[in-house]
Structures are given as C-alpha cells and as structure tokens.
Specification:
This protein has helices at about 5-15, 20-35, 40-55, 60-75, 100-115, 130-140, 155-170, 185-200, 220-235, 250-260, 280-290; strands at about 90-95, 120, 145, 175, 210-215, 235-240, 265, 275. With about 290 residues, it is α/β, with parallel strands linked by helices. It has two domains: about 5-75, Four Helix Bundle (Hemerythrin (Met), subunit A); about 90-280, Rossmann fold (3-Layer(aba) Sandwich). The longest helix has 18 residues, at about 185-200. Bound molecules: guanosine-5'-diphosphate (GDP) and magnesium ion (MG). Magnesium ion binds near residues 100, 101, 125 and 177.
C-alpha cells in the first residue's frame, strides 16, 4: 500500500478485524511511519484501548472517529490577521530549501488580496547572492519593494533598514527572509537572537510574528528543526509547505503536541496562489481519508 494515505492504511488494517496485540503493533508502526511521532502514537493507542474496554469503539467508523478526535485535540491553529493600523513584522524562518523565499512572495500576495496591503520584503538571507536575487525577482513580479544589501552583509542591519523604510513610507507589513543554515546550530541561534532583538527594539511585540516554514516531506527531522528555532526565538506559527506532494505533513502533529506552536498556512505548489490558510478539519480529512 505504498503511497496510500495513513487513513487508508488504518482502514485496511481494520478490515483484518480483531483488536489483537498484533493489530496495535501494526497500528503503532503506521502512525509512526505517518510522522505522527512515537509518543503521540503510543498515547493514542492507549486511549483507543481504553475506549474499546469501555465499549466506546465497536466498529470502523467509531475507531476512525476516535483517532480523528484525538488528533484534532492536539493540532493547534488560529486565523492570523495583520494589524491593518500598525506596522507588522513577520520573520520567516526555516532550514534551506523548505520554501521560505517562495512563501514570502505568497504571503505578500495573500496580504494584498485579503487586506489590500502592500508588503516590503527584506532580503535577510544574505548568505547567498542567489537568495537576494530570488527575493528581488519576486518583488519585481509582485510589484513590491525589496530592501537588500550585498551578499555577506549583516542580516540584522538589512532588516533594520527595511523597518525604517516601512516606517517612513507608512507601510504596514515587513516580511523578512533569513538564511536557514543549520550546520552550526550555535551560530544560527546567535544570529537569530540578534535579529530578534533588533526587531523587538523597533516594533511592538503584538505585531511581530516569527513563522517557521516546515516542508511536508521532511518527517521527524521537522520536529528537531522546530525545536531549534523555537529555542532561539519562540515561534508564533508554522507554515507547512509542499503539501501538494504525497506527504500529508503528519509532522505538524508532533510539533503542535511538543511545542504548542499553531499551524497557520499551507503551501500547495510553486505558484503565488498555491497558498491558503491551514484548516484543521480539511487537514484531518486528507490525513485520515474521512
Ligand atoms: N511543490 C511545491 N514546491 C514548493 C513549495 N514551496 C516552495 N517550493 C519549491 O521549493 C524550492 C525551494 O524553495 P525556496 O523558497 O527557494 O526555499 P528556501 O531555501 O527555504 O528559501 C523551490 O523550487 C520552490 O519552488 C510548495 O508549497 N510546493
Ligand atoms: Mg531562500
């Protein structure tokens, strides 16, 4: 059943009937393969066993309903909206290749469509020239201003300049890119803390948000990424990208459970419009086929 959804796999397992120990072992394997995480899988199974004992589960649909309810209680989300009267600063974090720069362009377009607000984009990934060029390309396409300096410059200084520029133009949204190097965690954390401090010195805490981009195809490594970034700057939300792939992003369950960071948006392709708010019901529907 390679490639089929977690929900189909669970349903397939259920057709074998009997809630035997072997059934629960297979179920645990499926949940872990689906990136739901060992601890969550273990707790969910304990819950199911109790519910079976108490006769709350007698058929497949009861079973799936309990799984859904359990996961629904873990997954966190809320409807993020920018404050249209004040300056909003959004720092976009994540390891290389997860889709940060693309997501910045999508977010800018989203704010334009939903709130009629232009964003100023900040080329805070100064590590590679290509990263700056990529953001400038999107700014050009979207007709939005990009503040940048040369490769290798201090990302904190670039973001500082961007905020100054936004204030002087009375712009309401700054979306800042960052480099996602992870090979030296200590340096990354140090750099992020510095950027965080600069932003806090220039803006109010309620309109400053730190969003982590997680690639749906990542697996349990995504939890470690989230832990690192959350330790550094206290994340406000997750944006799950590459949701158009066959991976259904079970990793967010572990992230919500362990770090209590809500999931806010979904990236569903490479185009600007391939972007939407995260909807928990839809997510569980896709994950569990119900
Ligand atoms: N299929 C798909 N590809 C995406 C999505 N978001 C980003 N990408 C692609 O992933 C690659 C890396 O994206 P990029 O924004 O450069 O990642 P960054 O290194 O984190 O800035 C690019 O080829 C993007 O087009 C998505 O939601 N779905
Ligand atoms: Mg990038």
């Amino acid at each position: 059943m390679a490639g089929s959804s977690l929900g189909l796999k669970i349903k397939n397992l259920l057709t074998r009937g009997k809630f035997s120990e072997e059934f629960f072992e297979d179920l645990e394997d499926l949940l872990i393969e689906g990136d739901i995480g060992a601890v969550t899988a273990f707790e969910l199974i304990a819950q199911i066993k109790t519910d079976i004992k108490n006769k709350k589960i007698s058929d497949v649909s009861d079973f799936m309903f309990i799984v859904k309810k359990y996961l629904s209680d873990i997954i966190l989300s809320y409807e993020y909206s920018p404050d249209v009267d004040n300056l909003n600063v959004i720092l976009i974090l994540g390891v290389n290749g997860v889709g940060k720069t693309t997501t910045i362009a999508k977010l800018a377009q989203y704010f334009k469509n939903e709130y009629k607000l232009d964003s100023i984009l900040s080329a805070g990934d100064t590590f590679r020239a290509a990263a700056i060029d990529q953001l400038m390309y999107h700014g050009d396409k979207l007709n939005m201003r990009v503040v940048h300096q040369q490769t290798g410059s201090d990302p904190g200084a670039v973001i500082y300049d961007t905020i100054e520029s936004a204030v002087s133009r009375n712009s309401k949204i700054v979306i800042a890119d960052t480099a996602g190097r992870m090979h030296n965690r200590e340096n990354l954390v140090k750099e992020l803390k510095k950027i965080d401090k600069i932003i806090k010195s220039k803006t109010s805490e309620d309109t400053y948000k730190k969003f982590l981009v997680i690639d749906a195809t990542t697996g349990q490594n995504g939890l470690r990424q989230a832990e690192s970034f959350n330790d550094a700057v206290n994340l406000d939300g997750i944006i799950l990208t590459k949701y158009d792939s066959s991976s259904k992003g079970g990793i967010i369950i572990s992230i919500c459970r362990d770090l209590k960071v809500p999931v806010l948006f979904l990236g569903t392709g490479e185009k600007y419009d391939d972007f939407s708010r995260f909807n928990k019901e839809d997510f569980l529907h896709d994950l569990l086929n119900m």
